[in-house]
Queue: 3 jobs
Job 1
Amino acid sequence: MDDRFENRAENIADQERKIQAEIDAKAPAGGESKEEGAVQAGARKYPEPPFPEQHQRKPGDEAALDPAPMYDAPFWKGSGKLEGMAAIITGADSGIGRAVAVLFAREGCDIAICHLDEEGDAGDTKAAVEAEGRRAIVLKGDAADPAFSEAAVKATLDAFGRLDVVVPNAAFQEHVEALEDLTLEHFDRTLKTNLYGYFNLVKAAVPHLKPGGSIVMTGSVTGIMGNDNLLDYSMTKGGIHAFARSLGTHLAPRGIRVNVVAPGPVWTPLNPADQPAEKVAKFGSQTVMKRPAQPEEIAPAFVFLASPQCSSYITGEILPIIGGYGGG
C-alpha cells in the first residue's frame, strides 16, 4: 500500500482526536448533560412535567385532570373562517375535541358534540361553544355503532340545517407491556372505536356534504413512528392516515377535502385513563419540547384544514404536531 495513504490516515485520525478533545473539554463534569426546562414558545406558558401522579377510570374526566387542560385559547381572535357552517365532532366532550369545538365556534361554526358517557364534560363543552355565540347540541352514543353515526348526522342536520365539517376524533387507547396481554376483546374495542367509528361517521356524513365541505380526522404520531406498548392503537392510527389519504382522492371530484392532524402527546383525559399514575407524572417529557402539548396548541391545525379560506388546495395530507423530531 502506498505510504501516502497510511500517512493521510494517521493525520486524519490525529485530526479526529483533536476535535474530540476540544468537545470533551467543554463537556460538563461527569459527562452529564445540562438540564433544561420545557420549551415555552407559545402565546402563554404551558404546564410541564412532573405532573401530579393520577389515574382515571375510562373514558376519563377532564374536570378531574390536574393541571386542567388548556383548551380555550384566549389569544385566538376569530375571523369568520367557518362562518355559517356546522360541524360534527366525536369525542368533543374533552381534550382535543373540546378545543376544536371552541375554536370552530369562535370562527362562526355551530357544533354537534358527540361523546360516550361523560355528561359533565360534554355540558362544559356545550357551554363553551355557546359562550362563543354559536349553537351546540350534545349527542351521547358509541362511535363504533353505525346506527349512532346515522342518528347523530340526522340530529345535526335537524338542528342546524346543514353539515359542512366532519371531525372523527373519538378514540380508545390502553397500553400493554406484552403482546400476550393484548386480548382479543381489547384489540377488537380499539379497532371498533378508532377505525369503525371513523368509517361510520364519514359514511353517514358524506352524502350531506357539499363542495367546500371537509373532513379532518385525528391521527397520531404512533401511526407514523409506531409505539412498542400501543400495538393496536398504532395500527388503527396508521389505518386512519391511509384511509384519509385514499378518501381524499376518492372525494376530490365532489369538492370535499380530507386531511389528518397527527398529534404527539397531548394533555387530555385519554392518557391518565390509560397509563399508571407514575408514568402520567412524566407524560410528554420525552419530546424535544420536554412537555406534552395542550389541546389549544393542536386545535388551530383543525381550523386551518377545515376552512376553505385556508386550505382549499390541501387534501389527503397528514400533519404531524409532535413537539419536534429527535426526542428520546
Job 2
Amino acid sequence: MTALSLSNISKRFGPTTALSGVHLRLDQGEVHALIGENGAGKSTLMNVLAGLLKADEGTMEIEGAAYLPSSPLDARERGIALIHQELSLFPHLSVAENIMMGIEPSSWGLLNSEKLRAETSEVLSMFHHPEIKPESRVANLSIAARQIVEICRAVAARARFILMDEPTSSLQRDDVEHLFGLIRKFKSRGITVVYISHFLEEVREIADNFTVLRDGRSVATGKIVSVSDDELIMHMVGRRVDNLFPSRTAAVEKETVLEVKDLAAPPALKGASFELRRGEILGIAGLMGSGRTNVVRTIFGLDKNAGGSIKVKNQTRGETPADRLSQSVGYLSEDRKNEGLAIRLSIADNVTITKFKSCSRFGWLNLSRQRAVSQEIVSSLAVKARDVEQPVTALSGGNQQKIALARLLHQQADILLLDEPTRGIDIGSKAQVYKTIAQCAGEGKAVLMISSYLPELFGMCDRLAVMSRGRLSPARPINEWTPESVMQAAIAGEGN
C-alpha cells in the first residue's frame, strides 16, 4: 500500500526555486533512493517532509490522510525521523542526551539516568564502537563518530519513516554494512526509508526504487534494477560523465616539500613518517579513529606536536596555522561546518579569507575586486549560487565543500592537505573536484589526500600509506596496493 505520497511540491526562497512540482510515492517497507546533484533540491524536500520547512504548493499524505506538519516535533509524532546531512547534534551534551532527546525515560517528571544509559547503550551496540560511550560529550567525538550518534538518534525514535540524507558520508565500510543491516531490519518491519546518497554502488545495494531530482524537479523514477549507472548519471546531470577520474601521467621524482618524521600527538597519533614531493598526490587510508585526520591537523598546527619533526621546504620553523599559511600550506578540514568555513559570511569572504591581500590595498578591502576574484574561482568549480555575496549557509552541503576548496585555490597554496575533499559531493561535482586536484598536482603543487572512499584513492593517488591504530605504514606506489591489502593493513596494523 502507499505509505507516503507527495504531489506537486514546490518551494521558493525569494527568487530562487528550490523545488518545482516534485512528485514522490513510497510504499510501506520500501527503501527509496533519492538521487541528484548538489543543489537539486533533495535536502529541501527532506526538510519539507520533516516539518523544518513548509511547502509553498502541493500536498502530502500519509496512508491516505492529509499530512501537513506544523513543526519538526509534529512530524516526529507522525512517525517521521530525519538524519541530517549536516549533523544537527548538541555538542555540549552527552551522547545519551543527544540520542534520547525528546524521548528521555522519566518517572514523575524525573530523569531516569540509569535507564537513559541502558537504552542508549542498546542502540549504540548495533555499530560495535565501544569507544562511543553514552556519557561521552559529543564535542569530543570525531565527525564519523558523530554521524553514528545522529543515525542512532533516528533509530531510537522508532519512526515509521526514516529519511537518511547522506548517512554514510563519513563512515567506514564496516559501519556502512551495519547500517545496511539495520535498514534491512527496518524493511522487514514495514518501516519506509528514503535514502539519499551520491554513492551509486550503495544505492544499488540497498534501494528498491529511485527518484532523480534535477534543478528542483523529479525527472525520473522507477526500479533501481531497471537502469544502469550511466543512465542515472545522465538523469542527474543532464549529460554524460564518461571519465570520473582524470588521466594523469605518473609523477616524476621532484623535490621534497614536506618531510614528516616520527610525528606523534597522543593518544590518537603515535607515529607517522613520510615525504611529500612536488607534483604528486599521496593518499592516506585508514579506519575511523585510526589517527589519519590527526596527521594533517598536527602538520597544520591545529593539534600540538608531541614528538617528531616537520620540515616544510627544508625548514623546521613554524608550528601554528598562521605559520603554515605563510609557508603556502593549505588545509581543507573534514568538518566544513565547524572548521572549514565561516558559514554565516559570504562566499566572497570565505574564498578570500586566507589571502585578503589579493583584493586589498593599504589595509582597505576592495569589495568589487573581492567579488571579481571570488567569482572567477567559484565559476571554475561550477558552484551553484545566486552570487558571491550570498551567505555560505544558504548553499547545499556539496556546494559548501566546493567553497572550502575554492579558498585553497585562491590562497595559491603549494602544499594541499585535503581531508575528505569530496565528502557530500555529487558525481558530476566529484569529476570537477578530481580534475581540479589533478591540475594542482600538474602545476607542481604537492597534495596529501585523506579519504574513506577507496575508489578515489586508487583513481587519484601516485602513492598510498595506511593508518592503523595511530601508526602510518610506509608509503608505496599505488599499483603495489589492492583494496584487499589496504583493508588488511588498516585492520592488522601493517607497518606497526
Job 3
Amino acid sequence: MAFISKIKCRDCGTFNTNKDYCENCGALINPKLKREKSDQKRIDDREEEERNREKGKFELFIERNRNHKNIFIRLFFQLLYGIWFIVMAIGAFIAWLFAAVAA
C-alpha cells in the first residue's frame, strides 16, 4: 500500500499528490527538501563568510612563519604551535574533568 501525500502549493494554491515540486507553477513544496536546501544555503554562506574573513596580524604572522623558507624558523614556529596545541588539549581535559566531577 502506497502512502499518498497531498500538499497545497503556497504560491498558486494547487493541490499536488506525491510531488516535490508544484505541477502548476514549479515551486518547491516538499518541506523536507525546503529544509535541506535552506540548511545547505546556510552552510555555504558560513563557508563563504569564513573564506572572505580577513585574518588578523598575529594570525598572518604565525601562518607566514610556519611556512617560512628557512628551515630553522619553520621548525621553531612548528614547535611553538605544537606546544600551544598541547597546552590547549590539557586545558580542555581539565575543563572536562571539572565538568565531570561537578555533574
